[in-house]
Design brief:
By secondary structure, the chain is an all-alpha fold. The protein is built from 15 helices and two strands. It has a single domain, classed as ABC transporter involved in vitamin B12 uptake, BtuC, CATH 1.10.3470. Helix content is about 75%, strand content about 0%. The protein has a two-stranded antiparallel ribbon. α2 crosses α13 and α3 runs parallel beside α5. The N and C termini lie far apart (about 45 Å). Keywords: Cell membrane, Membrane, Transmembrane, Transmembrane helix.
Length: about 325
């Protein structure tokens, strides 16, 4: 990371850290949600952006992390320890799942990860003695609404910063190089010495760990979870759309995509409540069509230049 990028990142973190001093609970809730989706998008970037594997398992690991964290927290484990525990459990599950699903590619891999979401949801629904089944789990809360809004905003901000640093570390090291080789041509990468099985497994585990940590923080934040809520497939779809919107395989793309997606979502929801979903989908399709490499490739100079009249043409 260059000094300029480091300074810009530090400035953004400082500005975000000051938000609780000037924002009310609504602003902090929107900010916490935005940071949570930024974590999900960055986590998906490990396996989907760098390695090019279209994973829909975000909802699976988000739900698994939420339940793993909630269960041990309800048994008396402190919240931060519960979040770390949830990340570790999900990384282990991703390692075991990866032995099977990472042998697949393309559409087959995508469908297999969709099945994982439904499989984990049914296990949680059926294991009533541990998870509460469809009734969900309540978590104890000892904070006032104002204290909780500030605490979980900072918790999600810290998690987003850690996820970004991990993504940057992967991108500049051999793991990132190997994953990009796999994305370009997996067979060729294997022939030149890239251990594709190990690299893909590490990317899948990192993706699962950070997604699960976000799920565990979400469970503590909302103080109540149920299977239909935390295993919602929209978590997977939104994370993918955000990365495509911002720029897959880039460092800033997932963050920009999450901010742009949620800003558009909030804007359209406020002004076109009944047509919200249709208009939001149309806007995202247009953005992806005109910026196929994502918002990170957007240039004001190029955009303004495209509107200038051709030489010799009357205006």
């Amino acid at each position: 990371m260059s000094r300029r990028e480091l300074a810009a990142l530090a400035a953004v973190l400082v500005l975000l850290a000051l938000l609780p001093a000037v924002g009310n609970n609504y602003v902090l809730r929107v900010g916490t949600t935005m940071l949570m989706y930024a974590v999900l998008a960055m986590a998906w970037n490990f396996i989907g952006g760098f390695a090019g594997y279209p994973s829909f398992a975000t909802a699976a690991f988000f739900g698994l992390g939420a339940y793993a964290g909630a269960i041990v927290q309800s048994k008396g484990l402190p919240a931060i320890s519960a979040w770390i525990f949830a990340a570790g459990v999900s990384a282990l599950v991703a390692l075991l799942l990866g032995l099977a699903v990472l042998r697949l590619r393309g559409h087959a891999f995508a469908i297999a990860t969709l099945v994982v979401v439904e499989l984990l949801r049914e296990i949680v629904n059926g294991w009533v003695s541990l998870t509460g089944g469809g009734m969900g789990i309540n978590l104890p809360g000892a904070m006032t609404p104002e204290q909780g809004a500030r605490y979980y905003f900072y918790a999600m901000l810290a998690l987003a910063a850690i996820t970004y640093c991990a993504m940057h570390a992967v991108a500049i090291r051999r793991l990132g190089f190997g994953l990009r080789c796999i994305k370009q041509n997996e067979d060729a990468a294997s022939m030149v010495g890239v251990n594709t099985t190990v690299f893909k497994s590490l990317a899948f585990m990192l993706s699962a760990a950070f997604t699960a940590a976000a799920g565990a923080v979400y469970a503590s934040w909302t103080a109540y979870i149920e299977p239909a809520d935390v295993f919602d497939i929209m978590f997977s779809i939104k994370a993918i759309v955000m990365v495509l919107l911002g720029g897959a395989g880039t460092l800033l793309g997932p963050v920009l995509g999450a901010v742009a997606f949620l800003a558009l979502d909030e804007l359209v929801w406020r002004n076109f409540l009944t047509l919200h979903t249709g208009i939001l989908g149309l806007l995202i399709i247009l953005l992806i069509l005109f910026l196929p490499m994502g918002l990170t490739t957007f240039s004001w100079r190029t955009a303004l230049g495209s509107w200038r009249p051709a030489p010799g043409r009357r205006t």
